[in-house]
Amino acid sequence: MAVRCYSSSILVLISLLLLVTFSNVAEAYGRAKLRPSDCKPRCTYRCSATSHKKPCMFFCQKCCAACLCVPPGVYGNKQVCPCYNSWKTKEGRPKCP
Asked: Are residues 89 and 48 located together in one domain of the fold?
């Protein structure tokens, strides 16, 4: 009986460690849900390399508010945020920067 209890405890411990590890990885890559208050700083960085900061910030914050996710980096990586990536303009171009 003691061996079975010990095995269960180890299994629970390993499961918790994996859960914490994967949640940290998801947060590091932008997959974790942001709070609305996190949108402005993330969008400020996302739009830092463009010469069109005002429209970039407007659309980035709009997309972030709806998706609660901003892709990492200043360009690309949109596959990390499927909601952010799927928004299109009427012309079929990406809405979110």
From this structure: yes
Question: Which residues are bridge partners to 88 per DSSP?
Answer: 94
Query: How many domains are there within the chain?
Result: 2
Do the beta carbons of residue 29 and residue 72 sit within 8 Å?
Answer: yes
Q: Residue 85 belongs to what H/E stretch?
A: helix 82-86
pLDDT in tens, 13-68: 676 665 555 544 444 444 457 888 999 999 999 999 999 999 999 999 999 999 99
**What is the C-alpha separation between 42 and 34, in angstroms, rounded?**
10
Q: How far is CA 39 from CA 21, 68, 93, in A?
A: 24, 8, 22
Task: Tell me the C-alpha distance between 81 and 70, whole Å.
Answer: 7
Beta pairing partners, 94: 88
Structure tokens at 65: 């508010």
**pTM of the predicted structure, to 2 decimals:** 0.65
2 and 19 part of one domain: yes
